[in-house]
Please model this.
Amino acid sequence: MRRLKPFFTFGLLMAVLMLSGCSEMVILDPKGPVGQQQKDLILYSIGFMTFILIVVYALTAFIVYKYRDRKNHKGYDPDNEGSHLLETIWWIIPIIITIALAVPTVKTIYSLEGPPEETKDQKPLVIHATSVDWKWVFTYPEQDIETVNYLHIPEDRPVLFKLTSADSMASFWVPQLGGQKYAMAGMETKLYLQADEQGTYEGRNSNFTGEGFTDHTFDVMSMSDKEFEKWVSETKTDAPELTKEQYDKLMLPGHVKEMTFSSTHLGWVNHADEADYAMKARERLGYEPKIPHSKAAKEEKKKREEEKKKQEESESHGDSHAH
Amino acid sequence: MKWDEFFVTGDPLIYGADVSIVLTMVGILFYLTKFKKWKWLWDEWLTTVDHKKLGIMYIVSAVLMMFRGGVDALLMRAQLAVPEANFLDSQHYNEIFTTHGTIMIIFMAMPFLIGLINVVVPLQIGARDVAYPYLNAVSFWTFFIGAMLFNISFVIGGSPSAGWTSYMPLASNELSPGPGQNYYLLGLQIAGIGTLLTGINFLVTILKMRAPGMTLFRMPMFTWSSLVTMVIIIFAFPILTVALVLMTFDRLFGSHFFTLQGEGMDMLWANLFWLWGHPEVYIVILPAFGMFSEIISTFSKKTLFGYKAMIWSMLLIAGYSFLVWVHHFFTMGSGAVVNSVFSITTMAIGIPTGVKIFNWLFTMYRGRIEFTTPMLWSLGFIVNFVVGGVTGVMLAMAAADYQYHNTYFLVSHFHYVLIAGTVFACFAGLIFWYPKMFGYKLNERIGKWVFWIFTIGFNVCFMPQYFLGLDGMPRRVYTYSEESGWGPLNMVSTIGGFMMGIAFVILVYNIYYSFRFAKRETTGDAWNGRTLEWSTPSPMPPFYNFAKIPEVTGLDHFWKQKQAGKVEKLKAEDIKKIHMPSNSGVPFIMASFFFVAGFGMVFDWMWMGIAGMIGVFGTLIYRSFEYDDGYYVSVEEVIETEKISK
Model:
């Protein structure tokens, strides 16, 4: 036992260290009903898991301590090979725990398929989110506007995201609003999210999409209804229209800064119906994929990085849109 | 293809690797020539069909691959130690995590376990060899060649970088151009042939070649776990084979199974991959369970608790392993019904696994527990594996998984099951059967140091990752910002990673130290064992394993004989001539042709691919017309080998 002491002390220390950070961890700090339901489920399950760990650890410690080989060893029974009673107990208890976990899980799964319960009579705001290596294109079909790499949403209103991708399989995720869903070319997946508080939340693609994956992120700004309407009408009057040429350029792999347009790409393509649009656009633009370690690829990468740097500089000088 | 596309250039790490590879090769060639070891190498190893020698070669290769995969891991941890580090660039990082995952699962965990199965299972069931010794050699050499083909990618042609899951369309020609991804496809395909053959071979061996009296329910638990594993291999690996063929066609011959163009279905790849991939993780965990059962029983000096429940739970797990694959992509939007069903089946796996944990605990109950190193690893397994288990149940809850998916929470979970399960078992099994293989134990004092440094390092490395996951850190990012606040925990994690690295180095040192200084065994029963392999002499029983096949009367036969003081002594009149298979160089040559074919196809040089395949078929035809029924070992030779006095 003495030998195990540093191990326990260390474990305790780690636990304290990490739990102290718990309240700040984004998944346990949701800002909307979807994330809240998931948080509740997670905490509920952590309760059971803690119970299981305590039982197993206590039993292990007891048995290992009591039956360690030593002088005056008592209770040795080499032929003790089973007990129906005990074995029945540990078949039944896990079954009960599984049922106790399965019921709320299934309930939550079903509830997350639709808009949140408390706002289900409101008409959800529809936004198409399209992933292109390594940027996000957001389309507001009802408002007829489009943004790149940032989102504005009204608070306390469900948002229905229609997800798709122009190329690799991505996953649309705003941790503080709720769990993710895949965006896939030639497919449309639906995800309901809602923000109950105003603020800016980080969103990202969480599914590996190659070289630029790490910076495949976007910002979500939740605001009052009024502010949202104001932003929409300002965008419609001030922002430029999206041309097909410009959109095709977005199809090239790379990062771009935040953009705003007063029209959408849905007029000429919906990637959910046309999986190879981006590949064709790349061909039209004469883009050729290059072997990553070849000289040509290294030059291309250098160019891309310089452009990214330039963007970051210009963004830090003047904000391109109102936060 | 230009030279700058063929050789990977421009990275000092790669140049270092180039130099060390060349130096090692020169060193090996020099050693073999200087000490006239070429013939020894060919006769004793390259042409052997002896399951014990093949097993040792599997284990040696697996340890080498553990080194390679481990270096990958440490490079990643070094890059992630601090925010916005520039140690590796994005592409290099992507290649490294891809090869880390692929190598650790396919070329480390599986061969390590298959190696131990090779050495131990025929001895445990009282057989003289496996059912198809020649096929066994083919298995090993195709695995080895597949591994080598995959490994040269980082200096020639570039490594795959689409992740070990290689999701389409990311892994397609358009988004992952070049030979990298082809290395993945061909390396896994060639090695996969070997694994499938092993599955068939050991299934037949265990079913048909048990010693008289060893009924199915008298088999040692490790043999049982191997049997179940082989069944899973036979059902799962064909799926991988087909999936790899389809993707290879997409990349080399312009088909559209999974591509963006031509109505390809990227989701089909994910489904096929995990239809194999989930059973695969049970392929690497069930033999581990079997080993822990043997070790815990041996060092508690007690029979296994709930033997039949252990078997049924294993069969249940094997069945479930084919019914849960969707939990790898709950976020694909399959709908509430599908996600609910797969949530429940996945959680249900926790039930038989929990039963096993309690059965192990109660095997120690009323025992006399001896804390040898294999036993420490087994206890460490129980304590740490449970953490991986409960977080696995948390991940199984689909609605919550939407938040854990693709985060470090998941990364930590599968390292807690794969390291605390499989890797701990590899270490425990290696140390446990080391005296059987080499005739001496590994030093126990150093071994315990390794255990503590590794286990503590493991927890320091992976425990913080659960919290990083809950804080929203996605997996596979090559760096992160200062503002994310993930810096400190990542630093802790990196420190833990390097502790594991240090432990591995000490383990290797222990192999050297024990080779020099360990006391040689004289009995063949180093640990007071319970099963038949301990009744044979060490190091390494003679190539025919048993001069006289034992008659088994019950579970733990050898232990019971010892308790009753009735261990049989071999008598000269019991010995009959023994039929054994001949060595053959054909498996090695066939695998070499596979290498030529694979390398050619990786670079889309079809002339080379076809030439290689002609060679492969040539060896197959040669084998078909070869009339070699093996040979007999004479009674005199057996008596001589066994040193029986007349």
